[in-house]
Amino acid sequence: MLTIENLARFQFGMTTVFHFFFVPFSVGMLFMTFLMECIYVKTNDEKWKQRTKFFGSIMLLSFAVGVVTGIIQEFQFGMNWSDYSRFVGDIFGAPLAVEALLAFFMESTFLGIWMFGWDRLGKKLHLFALFLVFIGSLLSSLWILAANSFMQKPVGYEVIGGRATLTSFSALLSSNQTILEFFHVGTGFFLMGGFAAAGISAFQILKKRGDVNFWKPVVRLGLLVALIGSVGNFVAGDQQMLEVKESQPMKFSATEGVYEKTGDPAEWDMIAFFNEADHKEVFGIKIPYLLSILTYRKPSGSVDGMNDINKELQAKYGTDKNYYPPVTVLFYTFRIMAGLSMLFMLLSAGGLFLTRKKKQGMYENNVMMRIYGWSLFLPFAAITSGWLVTELGRYPWTVYGLFTIKESVSPSVSVGSLLFSNIVYFILFSILGTLMIMYTRRLMINSDVENATTSYVELDPFSKEAFEAEAQTVGNKNTKDPIPTEHKEVD
């Protein structure tokens, strides 16, 4: 139904999902580029310099798109969620100001130095500039996630005059929710970067673009980073769900599809269908003991059901609200996220085993190269599923237990304006996504990475090389036309 609330939610959800396609991709590729330049500085091998420039070019594309979508996302706080902004403005002001004034400027400044610093700075100083960009990206993520964690689990605040006021900045940063979110998202960066680098290299090998030995080391480096990231992400995600069980029990029960309190031990639904109108499970394929093991780390213990939790929430916050989140969506997106997390560990560990020195036949197997090539898209599905669980599971709250979605929407927006802006944003995001894919593909097809000199010098119109290139062009033109100008005029 086209209501102001639904259209505002859809617009913010669409923007957030699209924006977060590029944040993990750009930070992950930034880390991979940093590792490749580390190897170049250590070994002085020109091949690693060329690899650094190639993957750095892709990172820059994703960084640019991520900035554009991030700006659009922030506009919506004032456009569609002004009442929400008034309520949490004092809380969000501190971390978002630090993110913009410190972290983002740190990223952009040193990224520019790195782009135009090839062959101008010493190798170690040039590498240090990229390291600072990476640190700035992590700090930027920390401040954003600190703000988001307040929405999940409010801490360090006091409501004064109908507005949440920050009373302890340290409590916000040291919250279990903030720490677990940061490590979960941060390990997702490594996972994404590893699979992206390995997947792109696998496609290059599959399409026989250049020497296969140029891409082999990147495949292994990417899979190693992906393995570390996937294991860390699995552990961090598991710990975060245990935190969710305590702070947001309705979300936890919804991800497991538990309407009524389970028995002891608790069975785990692998597949299930629900009647959300009547708040009950219709059908499920269950595995004995597993839900108890996942929840309590032992084969015993029951899990509270959503129906009982709903009664508790009504007693605490009022009977005028619906506290049930979209159960079917949460149930399956959680399984997609968890299933892909285990698949990532299998793919990365298996790929490292199959590409070891004594046996590298995987590079000649087109099926395997295609599998690892297409696997670079899987982290996008996992990350999107994770954000859907995080945000949809908090329904009906924007700030859990304090402020609802209905209270947060701007009072001045209309259905028509929201519908128009949704269409415009969807078209814009589609264009940006298409351009990102198109230019990345063009880089993969046309970049002569093995004979690269300086990837970014052509971006600087005032560089010495740019002036030399212009002079060479003019000289070539004059050579092709030896007839003096005055003779031409006579003719």
Automatic annotation (TrEMBL):
- Record keywords, A-Z: Cell membrane, Electron transport, Heme, Iron, Membrane, Metal-binding, Transmembrane, Transmembrane helix, Transport
Provide ranges: composition bias, Basic and acidic residues.
478-491
The protein's GO terms of the molecular function aspect are:
electron transfer activity; heme binding; metal ion binding; oxidoreductase activity, acting on diphenols and related substances as donors, oxygen as acceptor
InterPro entries given for it?
Cyt-d_ubiquinol_oxidase_su_1 (IPR002585)
What does the entry list under GO cellular component?
cytochrome complex; plasma membrane
Q: Does the keyword Acetylation apply?
A: no
Main localization, broad class:
membrane
Source organism superkingdom: Bacteria
Q: How does it sit in the membrane?
A: Multi-pass membrane protein
Give its localization.
Answer: Cell membrane
Instruction: State which residue ranges cross the membrane.
Output: 20-41, 53-72, 92-115, 127-146, 182-206, 218-236, 329-355, 367-389, 418-439
Biological process terms in GO annotation:
aerobic electron transport chain
Which Pfam family, any one of them, does this sequence belong to? Answer: Cyt_bd_oxida_I
Q: Where is this region: Disordered?
A: 471-491
Similarity section: Belongs to the cytochrome ubiquinol oxidase subunit 1 family.
- Give the matching PANTHER family: CYTOCHROME BD UBIQUINOL OXIDASE SUBUNIT 1 (PTHR30365:SF15), CYTOCHROME D UBIQUINOL OXIDASE (PTHR30365)
Question: What is the protein name stated in its UniProt record?
Answer: Cytochrome D ubiquinol oxidase subunit I
Q: Which species does this protein come from?
A: Lactococcus fujiensis JCM 16395
